[in-house]
Amino acid sequence: MSALLTLCVVLLPLATPGRGAQRREPCTDLRPLDVLAEVVPSDGAAGGVRTVQVLGARGLQLSAAPPHAWSFPASRIFFRCDLFPEEFSIVVTLKVPRLPPKKNEYLLTVVAEERDVLLLGLRYSSTHLHFLFLSEDMAGAWQTRVSFRSASLMDSQWHTLVLAVSAGSFSLIMDCGLPVDIMADVPFPATLSVRGARVFVGSRRRTKGLFTGLVRQLVLLPGSDATLRLCPSRNAQLAELSIPRVLQGKPGDNEVLKYPYEADMKVTLGSRPPCTKAQDATFWFDTARKELHLCASSQWVSVLAAKAKLDYVEEHQRLPTNSETLGLEVFGIPGVGLFVAAANRKAKSAVYKWTDGKFVSYQNIPTHQAQSWRHFTIGREIFLAVANFGPNEKGQEVSVIYKWSHRKLKFTPYQRIATHSARDWEAFEVDGEHFLAVANHREGDNHNIDSVIYKWNPSTRLFEANQTIATSGAYDWEFFTVGPYSFLVVANTFNGTSTKVHSHLYIWLVGSFRLFQSFLTLGAADWEVFRIGDRLFLAVANSHSYDVGMQLRNDSYTINSVIYELNVTAQAFVKFQDIPTCSALDWEFFSVGEDHFLVVANSFDGESFSVNSIIYRWQGYEGFVAVHSLPTFGCRDWETFATSAGSYLIYSSAKEPLSRVLRLRTT
Ligand SMILES: [Ca+2]
Ligand SMILES: [Ca+2]
Ligand SMILES: [Ca+2]
């Protein structure tokens, strides 16, 4: 005890900072601070970011927006204290226009907002690059300007500049070349306060002096000289320390899925001009033939061909199936691989395994008008349940749960459950217990029957009926949680006289599901739940509008499907968006990078099964906006999956024995 006390007494003085050291804690992180990324909204699309690709690299054009759009409080990067680092470097990659004499444009400024005083700035003119900073002492404050000759900046090429500052030494390096060093009488201040200041990119807070070129990189590296990290570089004009996400990616890649993109529209007229790396992404209009060409990878390609390349998705695999496929379920088995189970209309369904980048038939399983498969796990055990719509050879209506045999590497029958024209299984867990819910569609002609929720009994190791819920032509169950609450929503299709019926959402309360909210739906075939940020949405696929005695017409199928959003205050889902669909049977939500998409399975327009299915992109305030049409035939189900090689969509057809795997083209 006393030894410990002594130790504490000895350690105590050591823990107090030595007065003589005077070493300041840095106010920022000592890593490259991507100033440009700070001003680019993470959702580039919504922020109206203007991205321009020129000479094979992308840059931002800032002059389209007012100066304040490209600024942020200095406290965002100087979060520990208010002092600008004494030693630092600034890295800029830019392409500047030729400026008239005497005109100046600002690349970066730090402005004390209240006093409207420039604390630090970087600007350039037709001949010089100027670094400005505020010096203060007892006598007052004055601005110091350090100027580098920079005529070669104006040659319409990309350049990467590193300005390294350390006390009285200012050094400028262009494209990893020889440094130009200036020793100034006035050193950079050791204590430049940025309290209440704002960082402006491409301006000095006003429209005057707005940067009109393209900027690709703007990084502050506190504490050190960035040339040590950047140079030498294979591509010195575009040497990278940190680039905002919106500007990343290989030029030429399709990135329609990512951000709005424009090529610098430079069109050469006349006979064939050269097409080398320098002309990349420029156009040539062949005046004789009236054809537009794009220079890509040192080759002129006709713009029609270039357009085809700009597809969101490309066909990756045509997957012939045993018969028409009603449902698809993609799942992985740890250590074994990736699989898709196809619910086929005729006597057998198939499980395919992803092998060498394609789905290959793996196992056939006898089914009876199978509608869908559901994969789930209980502990280490892996199951696959099929919803059989038709009766078996003995006339019994039975759906089957299969279990993966780790020994045989196949699915084997595990439990049979009596169902009534089963459409769908949903598997979920509440409070550590496992459940399966079946959507019983009809019994004979009666659509108003019970659907059943089964609970896993760990001692018998079987599912047992736990709760019945009255449904009307049930088609789909979807489970989700919100915080501690568990929800189950059913898609009711038809009550015997009309498809205009309520589909119900249930909440789990003390041991069973109770009605929470009802939605008026039109032949609802699918519910899809998804999250964007902290918002929760439910989308219903409305298949058709029909009342007994009414003639089915074309406009019975071209109806709205609806997206609802959870309003936490109202504790209810409220309508968010109507989307016109053609006998929609499925919604599938997926994300690519930071973008979110919904794809709908449009199956029938009243006349034909050849209907386009549509991909919608989340555009925030505007909701979901159609961005791509995919020709489909009797489209029934969409699923998404990803492998190390990329992201894919797969869809099945209820009208032909062919499913298709599509690859998402991303940067
Ligand atoms: Ca479902
Ligand atoms: Ca769905
Ligand atoms: Ca689906």
TrEMBL record:
GO CC terms: cell surface; ciliary membrane; stereocilium
Residue stretches of each EAR repeat: 311-356, 358-406, 410-458, 462-510, 512-568, 572-620, 623-666
Record protein name field: Thrombospondin type laminin G domain and EAR repeats
The Thrombospondin-like N-terminal domain, residue ranges: 48-224
Domain of life: Eukaryota
Keyword Cell membrane: no
Predominant subcellular localization, coarse grouping: other
Subcellular compartments: Cell projection, Stereocilium
Keyword Cell cycle: no
Keyword vocabulary terms for this entry: Repeat, Signal
Signal peptide location: 1-20
Gene Ontology process terms (BP): hair cycle process; Notch signaling pathway; regulation of Notch signaling pathway; sensory perception of sound; tooth mineralization
Gene responsible for this protein: TSPEAR
